[in-house]
Amino acid sequence: MPLSLPAGRPALVILREAFERSGVTRAAIDARLGLTADEFRVEGTLVCIGPIPEDDGMQDLIADLEDAGLTYFEDFFELTGNWPDWLSVFVMGRGDVA
Question: Is the distance from CB of 6 to CB of 90 less than 8 angstroms?
Answer without folding.
Answer: no
